[in-house]
Design a protein that fits this description.
The protein contains 10 helices and 12 strands. It is of the alpha+beta class. It folds into 2 domains: 155 residues, no CATH class; 157 residues, no CATH class. α1 packs across α5. The N terminus is likely disordered.
Length: 360
């Protein structure tokens, strides 16, 4: 064997070894994300946070810092499990004081503490809180947003998992009354991507024709179903990586899959602060407007079929949700009924979806 040939073989072996190591690491990450106990069940969990809430909530910008706090819960044997966590505010719109006096937060766990606990495998975990202490309807909005995530989970595994909790918040600075409200934990985007064998793509722009067309259409029809116009899976949000209320997962060589999140501006929830995108020409978030990419009517058929197939199981989620008021259940399902009336009537589907597409 010549020196050149020997060098080439060595380089190929190194490349193959590197690829094998990457695949092993990817498999390990996928299995860890799949088996994360936090999202392995939909049973409601009871947790308590103790921390300096006044100091945490004082920081309402994108440069907020973690504050030391404690999270504890009781395991199946009744033993108290206590974890040290960092807590900071997160988000954008719901950070405004006139919108949420109790904003959403992000938890940062210590890896050495979480093993063998409910939060095993978790590092940074977003929490959707109840937004307002003294307005019970905001807790209802939170339950509805939780159900929107659960609804999309029925349509695609490439979706953000959630876990509902009764959360007791104790302010160690004694500035706020102790309160117990429903909130929920969100699966971290990196874990969601790893669970499906992909990674989060940090790019400024991905045009629609370069995205997986089935997943993109599913994304867009789902947004129409829930009456949401507060999204953009194609371009960067205010100079950041793509996108607005959507995360892209896959690989740089493809596929590219848009995954929706953040649904508090959707019509099915209809929060007091929600507004439709003004360029769409609708007056209220309950007024649906399809804003998907234009495509032939025939391409919607398998997507509509999937929504019909999953209708009963999705409706059962809403009907059986603990804590959700009967009025909210009725209003939500009536709103979803209107969506099904459209997709199951070819003339209405043509008028409300096919002809009202983006650029149509």
């Amino acid at each position: 064997m010549t020196r050149f040939a020997g060098t080439l073989v060595a380089l190929l072996l190194i490349a193959m070894t590197g690829t094998s190591a990457q695949e092993t690491a990817a498999d390990s990450s996928r299995l860890a994300a799949e088996n994360a106990p936090l999202f392995a069940s939909h049973e409601i969990i009871d947790v308590t946070f103790e921390g300096p809430l006044k100091s945490i909530f004082r920081e309402r910008g994108q440069d907020s810092e973690y504050h030391d706090a404690v999270l504890w819960y009781e395991d199946e044997s009744g033993e108290r499990v206590t974890l040290d966590v960092g807590v900071k505010t997160r988000g954008k719109f719901r950070l405004q004081r006139n919108i949420c006096d109790f904003p959403n937060v992000r938890l940062n766990f210590k890896s050495g503490q979480v093993e063998g606990t409910l939060f095993s495998g978790q590092d940074r975990v977003p929490v959707v809180a109840h937004c307002q202490d003294r307005k019970d309807e905001y807790e209802q909005f939170g339950l509805q947003e939780y159900l929107v995530y659960r609804t999309f989970n029925q349509l695609s595994d490439v979706s953000v998992r959630v876990r509902l909790a009764r959360i007791t918040w104790i302010d160690l600075e004694e500035d706020r009354d102790t309160v117990t409200k429903f909130g929920f934990f969100l699966e971290h985007f990196d874990n969601m991507a790893a669970r499906n064998g992909w990674e989060v793509l940090e790019v400024p722009v991905v045009p629609p024709e370069q995205q997986d067309q089935h997943q993109l259409t599913l994304f867009e029809v789902f947004q129409f179903m829930i009456g949401n116009t507060d999204w953009d899976p194609f371009t960067a949000d205010e100079g950041e990586n793509c996108c607005h209320n959507a995360v892209l997962v896959g690989t740089m060589a493809g596929p590219v899959i848009p995954v929706p999140y953040d649904f508090d501006w959707s019509g099915v929830i209809s929060t007091p602060y929600a507004r439709p995108d003004p360029k769409l020409g609708i007056g209220h978030v309950r007024d649906r407007r399809y804003w998907g990419v234009c495509r032939p009517a025939g391409e919607f058929a398998p997507i509509f079929a999937l929504f019909n197939e999953k209708r009963d199981v999705m409706y059962d989620l809403w009907r059986n949700q603990e804590g959700l008021e009967e009025k909210k259940i009725r209003e939500s399902l009536e709103y979803l009924d209107e969506f099904y009336e459209i997709i199951n009537d070819s003339r209405k589907a043509e008028r409300e979806i096919v002809r009202r597409c983006r650029g149509g």
